[in-house]
What we know:
The structure holds 2 protein chains of 2 kinds.
Chain A: E1 7-19, E2 22-29, E3 40-48, E4 51-58, E5 68-73, H1 81-86, E6 93-97, E7 100-101, E8 112-117, H2 121-133, E9 138-144, H3 153-160, E10 164-168, H4 177-182, E11 189-193, H5 196-208, E12 216-218, E13 232-236, E14 241-245, H6 251-257, E15 275-286, H7 294-299, E16 302-304, E17 309-317
Parallel strand pairs in A: 8-9, 8-11, 9-10, 11-12, 13-17
Antiparallel strand pairs in A: 1-2, 1-6, 2-5, 3-4, 3-7, 13-14, 15-16, 15-17
Chain B: E1 13-17, E2 26-30, E3 33-39, E4 45-49, E5 63-65, E6 68-70, E7 77-78, E8 84-86, E9 104-107, E10 110-113, E11 142-147, H1 151-159, H2 164-167, H3 176-179, E12 182-186, E13 190-200, H4 204-210, E14 216-225, E15 229-238, E16 251-262, E17 268-276, H5 283-293, H6 300-317, H7 330-345
Amino acid sequence: VAEQIDWRKARVRSTRDLTPDIRLFEIDPLASFVVPTPGSHINVMVQIKGRPDVRSYSAVGPCTDGVYRIAVKLLADSRGGSKYMWSLNPGAQLTISTPGNHFELSRGRPEYILLAGGIGITPIYTMTLALAQERANFRLLYACRRRPDLAFADELKAHIGDRLHTFIDAEGDRIDLDAEFARLVPGGELYVCGPIGMLEAAKRHWQQSGRPIDQLRFETFGNSGRFASEPFKVKIPRLGREIDVPVGQTMLEALEAADVDMIFDCRRGECGLCALPILETEGVVDHRDVFFSEEEKAANTKLCTCVSRVVGGSITIDTADRVA
Amino acid sequence: VTEAKPFAENAWYAAAWSHEIKHELTPRTICGKDVVLYRRSDGRVAALEDACWHRLLPLSLGHLKNDEVVCGYHGLVFNSAGRCTYMPAQKTINPSACVHAYPIAERHRLVWVWPGDPSLADPEKIADFHWNDGTEWVGEGGTFYSLKCDYRLVIDNLMDLTHEAYVHVGSIGDETITSAPFDVTHTDRTATVTRWMIDIDPPPFWAKQIGRPGRVDRWQIIYFQVPSVIVGDVGVALTGTGAPQGNRSQGVNGAFLAAITPETERTCHYHWNFVRTFKKDDQQLTRDIQRAHVSNGQGVYDQDKAILEAQQRAIDKNPRLPFYNLNIDAGALWVRRLIDRLVANESGPEVHVPGQAAE
Lengths: 324, 359
């Protein structure tokens, strides 16, 4: 059930650029190795402006040779984790966790669709290798903005041949989700990792297809929205405060840094504990969580501060503080 | 340095008799893992981690709603794949909300659970236990659930039957066991102890079963399969009629069956049976044999239980004292070596740590 974080020393063995902005890291554990299962992630202690922080990266297969692999996309508007990772050279010391898994691959299903967008390929790639090894019935739908962004394309081609279907946005390719779901056999499962827009579309079409919702599996690290990240202002009349949220920080982090008392748990838009009421917005709320339903997001009465942002201005919120 | 666990996790273990698992929540601990078992309406058995994802309350304290488990605390619902299908007071379901669903198979009238990595759980790896199918061989057994000893002590007990002469005097015990030579062989997944007692007076139980006067050749061929299944081919035939050469037509043949499942490192579930190929339609004999093994503390297995639990208590009091081994322990020692190798193979690839100590 619960994940126990067990920190271990490790060292970067090698790096290799898979695309212009995705770098593969091979990491040697300096203590015992725990085999990552498909869908698992490794937490990495990163340094951001001299302060330690934690980032999660999906384990990339093959997983059984005693080496951990992760792939990190360098994000222009990142909070600093990817920039730190890209500063590491072979030999660099790291502190990492043993693998945890929030996105387990179930075995023995009659058919699978794996759906990946961009850097979302990382857990899906590992699942692909596992399903190919089991000779499972599956297909991989892999979408990217531009052709050079297709990480692992050669490896995938070699492992799974025509089970791989790529879709290049810039070349006008679109995935016909209705048709894909329609030809999935009953009991077949869908595994999705990609930007929030892809996930929401997949959820919508899956629901419309009448399939059981528990057979759609997904993972999100809550770092993509409908809009690019930009700075915005948070106003809290109850506390008489105005707090700036820069590009490289989440709203929750900015509130914490300003000593606003917050409760939270997952910090990736799943649990809903850090949600606060919206009193007013100038601009648009970019809901990046998976906690609220589409209707709730449209109603715009609350937002998950750990992942969601505002574009084009400011937001006025309330907090749970009361005078004793 | 922590000591390796005494059991392999990537293996099938008997969790219950098939007839015991109904459309109701049955908690059971297997290899230290708390599991809740139930039979779905399509007849298949489900095995979930027995702890709610939310606050760890055992799901076995909740209830079944159709084929899903409702937690008895806040009403979260999990389906038989272990996935949450309902969370209170929210419109969506947290995608991380799962409990582990253990691979499960029913075979040989038992329910088998795989506590380890599900991707390795191939039902073809279930030990051959066809003696328990209730067709070619007949008999009704039972289970000592939560027997208070390390499961390997039960294996030791069954791999060496010289104890019969002392623990089971008056039924199957006989002094000749202690003087008959025996042979031990093994593969990487099995170990076999073979003992023939030629031209002896049959002990009381067997004298009654063969139903003819005269001396007999008695055999005990004990066959272990990893991780912890034992089939003891036992019987007697009139001496000089060729039983050692393979002709058992002038004898009676039975088999004691054991599927021993670690519950914790110091307790186990001992599924047992005694089956036979003679007088197969005699249901009174089936009941008599069952009672001869377990009956209000008077059966031969009740005698073993008392010994095994006393042995474990002694080990617990003197954890540093080593076991010493005798010639008779060869079968048990081969079994322990096979188990140790299974466990060692599960600890993953060795990591080379160059030049410095790992933390």
